[in-house]
Records
---
Amino acid sequence: MDELKAYCHPTANNFTNICKTHPEIKHITPPSVTTTSRFAKSLGAMILLPLMWFLKMYDSTGPKSLPKFMAHECGQLSGEWRQQLLSFRPQQGMNSVRQSSGAILDQLWQSLPLFGGSADLSGPNVVLKTPKAVFGPPDDDGKQSYEGRYVHFGTREHGMAAIANGMAAYSTRKDHKSGKLGQAIIPIAATFSMFQLYAAPAIRMSALMKLQVIHIGTHDSIAEGACGPTHQPVELVNLWRSMPNLLHIRPCDAEEAIGAWIMAVDYKGPTILGLNRGPVPLQGGTDRTKMQKGGYVIEENESAMVTLVSTGSEVYQTVDAAKILRERAISTRIVSMPCMRRFEEQGKEYISSVLPRDGRPVISVEAMSTHGWARWATASIGLDSFGTTVHADAVAEHFQLNAKHIARRVTEYLREIGDANAVLLPWRAI
């Protein structure tokens, strides 16, 4: 059909070609598509009527389980999952946030209608801590069936995210009593953070359509180390943080990971959980509830000379740097900011209580691009270049992003600005 050819694309040069088709028709749909869609609609109505009659009869004669079934169909979640997370006790000692997230997810598989998997990285993403029934044609050993909820997507990041969008869109329901929207299925899609760039168009569509998809991105900074800059997403945080309707969360430890999962399940839109690769300690001041405001004080000091604000796996380096600064008689306070979008949604009073604009310096610390931090900080320590290929334990030293170098850079900055009002000075990377 000529009207479907590329020369009919609506550009100024093709206006003449468009007029050669059917100028009175605003939108052209091939007859075969129209016929098929009308048939599908009629068939759906034919199937739905007897189904609703069956459900009504079942409710009147059988066990009173229809309300529970309908609540699930409408995506109205029970409170079990929340109680699980509020009572969850994180493992003490040094653990990577991806491992902590995996332990949390292991619990949530039991209490939430999760469906999804990983793009060939189930182990590194820690989304299959305890073996789950895999979705697919039944096999002889019973490990795979159509009742399974875990999917091995293979190295198909875009396909995985697009499929997750489809599941979220299809399963969105409105509760017939409350009128609330919910999802009968909550899709998860996991891969390395860097490889989420392959899925970016699909992630953008989930944000555009406000579809609840939980994207898990592990190995989310230069601390990935030996795999080199091809696996170190120094710039992607700016894409995700600037994307409307998308929550990008970088929890700094196991305690914040719990709060991040609560945020992701509560949010009726897409979430990216940025999880680090290497072990980090459980910080004393982190809080699964407070972190849901996006940013909060984890070490307070009303007479502090400087505020250090950090996120993700860099928080523990920042805490250690603060100890060195205190030895130099530089008093500090520390803010963790796992989610910029959620923080900027807070009221002015709360924001100013966390990051006061009183002339004292606020310095951000993140092993990624410094772009975007000028809104909150007077200066930033970060990485405005690609990473490099060194062992994970050596990469922070290589880029001078470990505790001793953070303390040195802060000290030099404070010496340079002296008693000046830091808020009135131009922001800069230091």
---
Amino acid sequence: MDIIITYNNYKYIIEMKIWRGQKYHEKGIKQLCDYLEINDLDKGYLVIFNFNKNKEYKEELINADGKDIVAILV
């Protein structure tokens, strides 16, 4: 699912995914990078929902394809 928020003439793109492993996570990063490229933006947000009992909450800054992605695992 994607959310695009326009505020003060700036777009914020948020990609939301369910955690299904590292390979799926990497596809989500690539998908967000593509959306950022289409919208001529350098920064986006990836929110990952992890329903595993042993999940770890974390936030990380990822640089992929020249784009800055704030990834949050909840």
---
Amino acid sequence: GPSNIWNPSKGFLTQSTSPSSYDRNFPTTGSDGLYFDLDIGGIDGSQLSWTVNTSGSIRATVSWTRPRSGTFTDPWGSTVQADRWISDKSKNVTRVTLHGPKASSSQINSDNPSSLTRPSLPQTFELVGRDRSGNEVRYGFVLRQWFVNRTKSDTAY
């Protein structure tokens, strides 16, 4: 993508710090369990306590965590390195994980599954990290779409 939106080594760049245009920031789509990492400069991420401001059925959690290591098999049968965009797996990251409607095992295994509660979209999120000195880091985004995976794990592609 354009260099003002995408950096090959850092990913999507912040497009707006103004709440009225958080819809310009990443991500705009989500699914239960998907996550992204915030690259925070000028402040020690380990010292931040996070508040997530939103209203709606979709939630986001922010954690200071070690990147995933090892490999997994993607839906197309390829072996993929976990968190492959992170070169140094020994350093913690600020990770935002999305939580929302997902299919239960009975819905996944049914040929005629019951419906899910549909989230009210768009839904705006503002993540506020504060350190003990009162310094703040804010990041906002707007989810416009929510996807639910109903694929059986043993399905061949």
